[in-house]
UniProtKB/TrEMBL annotation, chains A, B:
Alphabetized GO MF terms: FMN reductase (NADPH) activity
Nitroreductase domain boundaries: 9-165
CDD domains, A to Z: NfsA-like
Protein name, UniProt field: Oxygen-insensitive NADPH nitroreductase
Enzyme Commission number(s): 1.5.1.38
Keywords: Flavoprotein, FMN, NADP, Oxidoreductase
InterPro entries to which the protein is assigned, alphabetical: Flavin_OxRdtase_Frp, Nitroreductase, Nitroreductase-like
Annotated source species: Cytobacillus dafuensis
Pfam families for the chain: Nitroreductase (PF00881)
Length: 249, 249
């Protein structure tokens, strides 16, 4: 075990921040760490938009489902999958890169690249004593978000990252049992074992909620997941992604 | 600056490893760190397959384009986007989750979740003095890879992560200028400035190659990208993803 491992293992999302902005230096360190992540074939298929304008932050907060910590934080980053510069490169180098740019494969590459960079940013921030929260809620209404941030064609805002000085303590939620997530040499498919693991995990999660809410909440992981996934959310996504010019071909 | 920042900033891919396996403890620490990453609405939509069987590693190495370090390393992880357990949860909880599971939105969520977890694994490994290399090459032939690893429906192998004791020193490749990747409040779209930044970066990358290859290689970033993207690769991906049961609806 070492300091880095401790930091990784102790992640929890922070949803309340002190009224104190990050310094320019902190922001640049976080972005440079993001850029240091591995990138598929060196493609660097992302851009990061820092939002400092108060009105824009308020508007983003509304769009993300009225999450106050989207407006109130030390800095708000929006991570975008970005193949627009590769389109420009096609023009500069006089080559037709559009079939690649519009492929499902490169859409996946851009998403993965963006997420790897974002996770480095998150860890860099946490190592500076800051708290973070990923904001998938910006995908509630990407039409409005992309207008607000003026993202061009082939740029897809994926998620926000609220960063700031923590003004709350939160507990770490227990994850799925390691043996449920980690397989060796092949994917185990023993349904009975699988469901037993899920039941075991349900007990852990239920106890976690009971202890933290004086018994007011006792839901299991599988019931949480079923309720969340039963509601069909963001079903406009395919159409939006294609409109943005990542065509899922 | 701190130890964590140093670690993040000093990442480089390692493609040659000593003949020494990771211990069970190292593997478990790496997986636990992966699991500690943020996960969208707690969905935990990934699985990790560790490959230790020598024949399987050889076969994966071939499938990934004859990359020897896929076979020869301390441990080989395959990170998979996984919505299969959520399908089972639908059965357990008696709810129809299929429209969600087959949506483009949840496909994106699963990819992002998997990449965040993988980047934590990569950093954990590097903090233990190990080197890492992401292997997107497994996507060259996912049909064979998924047969080899027996991944069920709704599980999509995304990339490998070769981990081991470094047997080479490599240099860190300079990333795009920060001001090219980082925007504030809105996405800047000044094409002239944009192309100037790319030219500047081209010079940096070209000098980087010249210095490291005794002048044998001097390609620019934009030419590299144009050559890479001009070749249409893995155009079967959409069909495969849909066959796997992440239907991009």
């Amino acid at each position: 075990m070492n300091e880095n491992i401790n930091l990784l293992m102790n992640h929890r999302s922070i949803r309340k921040f002190e009224d104190k902005l990050l310094t320019r230096e902190q922001i640049e360190v976080i972005v440079k760490c993001a850029q240091s992540a591995a990138t598929s074939s060196f493609i660097q298929a992302y851009s990061i938009i820092g939002v400092t304008d108060k009105d824009k932050k308020m508007k983003l907060s509304e769009l993300a489902g009225n999450q106050s910590y989207v407006a109130n934080n030390g800095h708000f980053f929006v991570f975008c999958a970005d193949l627009s510069r590769h389109e420009q490169i096609g023009e500069m180098e006089n080559k037709d890169l559009i079939p690649s740019i519009e492929s499902t494969e490169k859409f996946m590459v851009a998403l993965i690249d963006t997420a790897l960079a974002a996770q480095n940013a998150a860890i860099a921030a946490e190592s500076l004593g800051l708290g973070i929260c990923y904001i998938g809620g910006i995908r509630n209404n990407l039409d409005e978000v992309s207008k607000l941030l003026k993202t061009p064609k082939r740029v897809l805002p994926l998620f926000g990252l609220a960063v700031g000085y923590p003004a709350q303590m939160t507990d770490k939620k227990p994850r799925l049992p390691l043996e449920h997530v980690y397989h060796e040499n092949e994917y185990r498919q023993n349904n009975e074992e699988y469901r037993n693991q899920l039941q075991l995990y349900n007990n852990i999660i239920s106890e976690y909620y009971v202890a933290r809410t004086n018994g007011e909440r006792n839901d299991t992981w599988t019931s949480q997941m079923a309720n969340m996934l039963e509601k069909q959310s963001r079903m406009y996504m395919k159409e939006f992604v294609q409109k943005t010019g990542m065509d899922l071909k």
